[in-house]
Amino acid sequence: MSPHLLLNTSAASVVASRPSIIERLPDEVQRMVYSLLDYQSLIYLSTMNRHFHRAIDPQAMADPVDKTYFVMKAVKDFPQHRPNEKGHEFRPGNFECYICFRVRSPDHFDMYQPLSVHVDLQGQIVRARAPHHTDREVMLRRFCIDCGVKEGLHAPFHCLVTRTGRDLWPGCLRCPDCGGDCPFDLEERLEPDFLQGKRARGQLHTGASAA
User: Fold this and answer.
1) Which of 183, 180, 170, 178 is CA-nearest to residue 209?
2) Locate the F-box domain: which residues (predicted)?
């Protein structure tokens, strides 16, 4: 039986609230089946029930080339990701991130993301100095703001402009007390004391204005 037929049979069994064929297989056989599935199928199967959600990590299991192909195809062919240019409300389309391999809404992407970075001989991004002849320039594909902060491609406290035109200060993405983003207008970014006052009053995470 092919892995995709097993996948379809599994989905039907989940709907019927019975253990699927895959679930009844030994763990090592299950892993063999998962290894034959593409990224899209792994994502689909991981949403079927708790067993598959625990057993399958599409990000870790899928081949990088397959993940790249899928997000490129999804952003181009899936209707929900296309821009809406009809009527009075223009809605930009969604974009693909080539680090987390997800298609996300435009407010998750920097309008002016860096096109390349220089890395030193240890593979670290060069920041505090000018590039040396021993450094290597690495071209970057599109990545979301969350991945940019996580991978060090966005400097902490560097103001960004999202694809929807919103000013964004992503430094708070590193904050364990927040986990979100912090939008500010230009006046707020230029007044550190004012920002400190907002932080003390607990208004920093919501972007609320000062009283």
Assistant:
1) 183
2) 19-72
